[in-house]
């Protein structure tokens, strides 16, 4: 397996999910990065193994890396609860759909996950992270968007947090 990199943004407002994924061989550079990230938490960022339920980790083994530093008890609950559950379920959805072609036990996945500190609705956080994780893995598996698709929009950048004033 070569390294597969994916990205997806699902939802709107504070409950939107932005997930980046890196999937690769447990015995390769992604495996090394996975173990290193798990062993080197930093203030506000504590990577952890995503589980469907306690004692039932997602397969491939998935490292949840929070992109937003934990700001409150509620933010921590949404990150470690709803978003984690969504990521784990999204990984397993991708496996069930055949998006992970190799043996999941030979692979590891790093999921960098944005949970807005202003998020409030746990069910939306869960649903959006589940969909975003599955779609990020799909993007990695299909190597999309293509270079041509990316080049076609290079003069009109836009994201949920910024659109150049001339493009509004």
Question: What does this protein look like?
Answer:
By secondary structure, the chain is an alpha+beta fold. Helix content is 37%, strand content 22%. The relative contact order is 0.23.
Protein topology:
Layout: E1 4-10, E2 17-25, H1 29-39, E3 48-49, E4 51-53, E5 56-57, E6 61-66, H2 73-96, E7 107-114, H3 122-142, H4 147-152
Parallel strand pairs: 6-7
Antiparallel strand pairs: 1-2, 2-7, 3-6, 4-5
Offer a concise description of the structure.
Helices cover 37% and strands 22% of the residues. It contains four helices and seven strands; from the N terminus they run ββαββββαβαα.
| Count of separate DSSP helical elements | 4
Q: Which percent band covers the strand fraction?
A: 15-25%
Would you identify the regions where 5 or more consecutive residues have pLDDT less than 50? none
N-to-C CA distance:
41 Å
Overall outline: globular
Total strands: 7
Radius of gyration: 16 Å
Structural class: alpha+beta
Order of helices and strands: EEHEEEEHEHH
- The pLDDT mean sits at 95
Fraction of residues in helix: 25-40%
Largest sheet: 5 strands, mixed
The largest beta-sheet arranges its strands as 1-2-7-6-3
């Amino acid at each position: 397996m070569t390294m597969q990199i994916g990205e997806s943004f699902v939802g709107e407002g504070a409950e939107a999910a932005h997930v980046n994924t890196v999937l690769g061989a447990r015995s390769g550079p992604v495996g090394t990065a996975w173990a290193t990230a798990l062993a080197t938490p930093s203030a506000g960022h504590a990577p952890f193994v995503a589980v469907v339920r306690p004692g039932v980790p997602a397969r491939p083994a998935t490292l949840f890396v929070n992109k937003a530093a934990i700001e409150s008890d509620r933010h921590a609950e949404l990150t470690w609860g709803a978003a984690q559950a969504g990521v784990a379920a999204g990984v397993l959805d991708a496996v069930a759909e055949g998006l992970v072609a190799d043996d999941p036990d030979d692979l590891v996945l790093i999921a960098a996950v944005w949970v807005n500190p202003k998020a409030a609705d746990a069910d939306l956080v869960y649903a959006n992270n589940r969909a975003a994780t599955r779609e990020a893995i799909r993007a990695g598996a299909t190597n999309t968007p293509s270079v041509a698709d990316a080049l076609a929009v290079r003069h009109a950048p836009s994201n949920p947090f910024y659109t150049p004033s001339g493009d509004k």
